[in-house]
């Protein structure tokens, strides 16, 4: 009983000291009207981050069958872009979810059974995200889960590496946002909303918040970003054809 009281007290103290979440972005209707912030050089990864990136790439390759010789994070982005260019939205969605399931080694199902209904579950998942995933998305900060909710459970990604370095809305939506939201709701038993900002490359993650349907999500503009490398490559290969658009989620 004392342990539960201590956990509750820690949760309350953490929630009271957390900053509010990032306001929901309100992008223009067309992604082509967005001017993304200039890229910043990636920091040199630590040995632990290099190992994590290598493990993530090996697991992803099992489900995409895409390999490149480029090392490190840039190699990961090349593989993501290559798979995105030749696959459907649903195939990307499935490959991403299976990759996350493989890396989770059953932890999600266990969490769903023993912890998903606990009041501290969103805060615990937010803290784990901040601790475990900087190698993939960059630095993060814990926040409250919603503007009108003082409880913890939010994570603000300051400059999402996938979004900033990848430069593609489709990679963000089909291989990160939608499969992650689906995975946590179904396997971990806790809803999560991800609200990327395609101009600033920030992303507000809110555990314990039910996400809207993709077609109703105000953070998702239509079409491709102006400087999307995948769209540019497709245009160069077929100059007579219009720029491709990201297909709607299934």
TrEMBL record:
**MF-aspect GO terms:** iron ion binding
TM segments? none
**One Pfam family of this chain:** D27-like_C
Keywords for this entry?
Signal
Origin superkingdom: Eukaryota
Signal peptide per UniProt: 1-17
Task: Show where the Beta-carotene isomerase D27-like C-terminal domain sits.
Answer: 150-215
PANTHER family assigned: BETA-CAROTENE ISOMERASE D27
Name of the featured protein: Beta-carotene isomerase D27-like C-terminal domain-containing protein
Organism field: Prymnesium parvum
């Amino acid at each position: 009983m004392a342990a539960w009281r201590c956990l509750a007290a820690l949760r309350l103290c953490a929630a009271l000291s957390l900053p509010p979440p990032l306001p929901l972005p309100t992008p223009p209707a067309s992604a082509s009207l967005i001017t993304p912030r200039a890229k910043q050089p990636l920091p040199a990864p630590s040995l632990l981050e290099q190992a994590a990136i290598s493990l993530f790439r090996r697991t992803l390759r099992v489900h995409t069958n895409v390999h490149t010789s480029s090392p490190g994070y840039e190699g990961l982005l090349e593989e993501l872009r290559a798979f995105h260019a030749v696959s459907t939205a649903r195939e990307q969605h499935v490959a991403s979810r299976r990759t996350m399931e493989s890396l989770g080694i059953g932890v999600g199902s266990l969490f769903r059974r023993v912890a998903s209904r606990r009041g501290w579950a969103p805060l615990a998942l937010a803290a784990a995200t901040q601790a475990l995933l900087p190698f993939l998305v960059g630095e993060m900060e814990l926040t409250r889960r919603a503007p009108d909710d003082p409880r913890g459970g939010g994570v603000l990604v300051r400059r999402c590496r996938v979004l900033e370095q990848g430069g593609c809305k489709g990679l963000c939506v089909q291989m990160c946002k939608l499969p992650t939201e689906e995975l946590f709701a179904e396997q971990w038993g806790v809803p999560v909303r991800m609200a990327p900002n395609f101009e600033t490359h920030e992303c507000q993650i809110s555990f314990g918040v039910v996400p809207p349907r993709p077609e109703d999500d105000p953070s998702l503009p239509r079409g491709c970003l102006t400087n999307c490398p995948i769209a540019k490559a497709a245009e160069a290969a077929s100059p007579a054809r219009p720029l491709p658009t990201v297909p709607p989620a299934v």
